[in-house]
């Protein structure tokens, strides 16, 4: 039986790896023995995350880069190959939302900012596609690799307000399945592409939507908890089990799949 303990000395690149969710994923992979390249635009955040992982005995590399900048990604690739010689795993965790691509309760669809909508969809879609093009090209000749994209509950059950985020995350699920087919057919069964769809985890960008200024749940936050059978938000570390499994040989026949990590939110009809 194949197991999920075969990750030791594999090399992973985690875009958005200095963020709340990306950072937890990076730490989880590091604890499994993976060498982790931490990518984010902010140098200080990247270096802090690398220092944290190294202080726990892991091996990490700071890679300040913008997922929308091809030149920076090419330089990042060279840095990783020079350091570790290969890339086995790519986690496309960079993404996010923007106020103008969100419809507040006192607005309508017609208040949407097209500029912000473009920025959000570019970050989430192109910000996944471009790293896959750059790093995936180095992974393909190995004929064994794992790419994990980040979807969302709002891709599967469209939520009010977050129109730009929802549309772009729905595209990520389609892109994941398309890439899974392409990679398996062109580069062999060992090149797998999957996604995870986190439920509701507290991060920098959604805190203001889920909590009021006094720290209590907002009306939206209460609705989410009421529709989550586990009656709580997720902890970032709870993504790691599924991610590590998808990266390992234990998931060798798994590709084109979106794994929900949501406390039951997607399964609950509300009744």
Write up this protein.
This protein has helices spanning 20-31, 43-55, 70-84, 114-139, 153-156, 163-187, 207-210, 219-226, 240-247; strands at residues 11-15, 35-40, 60-64, 89-92, 145-150, 191-198, 258-261. The relative contact order is 0.15. 42% of the residues lie in helices and 14% in strands. The protein contains nine helices and seven strands, in the order βαβαβαβαβααβαααβ. It has 271 residues and is an alpha/beta fold. Strands 3-2-1-4-5-6-7 form a seven-stranded parallel sheet, sandwiched between helices. It is globular, with a radius of gyration of 18 Å. The model has no long low-confidence stretch (mean pLDDT 94). Strand 2 (35-40), helix 2 and strand 3 form a beta-alpha-beta unit. The protein has two domains: 11-199 and 236-262, Rossmann fold (3-Layer(aba) Sandwich); 204-233, no CATH class.
Shape: globular
Quantity of strands, as a count: 7
Tell me, what is the CATH class of the largest domain?
Answer: Alpha Beta
Helix content: 40-55%
Low-pLDDT parts are none
Largest sheet: number of strands, sense, barrel closure: 7 strands, parallel
Kindly state the mean pLDDT as a whole number?
94
What is the percentage of strand-forming residues? 5-15%
| Spatial ordering of strands, largest sheet | 3-2-1-4-5-6-7
Topology:
Elements: E1 11-15, H1 20-31, E2 35-40, H2 43-55, E3 60-64, H3 70-84, E4 89-92, H4 114-139, E5 145-150, H5 153-156, H6 163-187, E6 191-198, H7 207-210, H8 219-226, H9 240-247, E7 258-261
Parallel strand pairs: 1-2, 1-4, 2-3, 4-5, 5-6, 6-7
Compose a concise summary of this entry.
This protein is of the alpha/beta class and 271 residues long. It folds into two domains: 11-199 and 236-262, NAD(P)-binding Rossmann-like Domain (Rossmann fold, 3-Layer(aba) Sandwich); 204-233, no CATH class.
